[in-house]
Amino acid sequence: MSNLNEIAHRHGRDRWKDAMFIAAALLLTAISIGSLTTKAKGSVTDHKWEVAMFETPELIK
């Protein structure tokens, strides 16, 4: 039974690694949610396209 206790101790949970993993997951989740908000998108302006046509008399023959 002492071998089983040693194995369980060796493969036990590391609380610092678990805490860092959860913190990183929360940070990435917050960043991904924040990138979807309208503030992160910025202001969207309507682009108005104009077409101008210039004819030069020298080229028309």
How does this model look, in words?
This protein has helices spanning 2-10, 15-34, 38-41. The protein has 61 residues and is mainly alpha-helical. It is rod-shaped. It starts with a helix and ends in a 20-residue tail after the last helix.
Task: Outline the biggest β-sheet.
Answer: none
Percentage of residues assigned to helices: 40-55%
Separation of the first and last Cα atoms: 103 Å
Number of strands: 0
- Specify the overall morphology: rod-shaped
Continuous helix count:
3
Low-confidence stretches: none
| CA radius of gyration | 32 Å
The averaged pLDDT comes out at 78
Record keyword descriptors for this entry:
3 helices; 61 residues; single chain
Per-chain topology:
Layout: H1 2-10, H2 15-34, H3 38-41
In short:
This protein has 61 residues and is mainly alpha-helical. The protein has three helices and no strands.
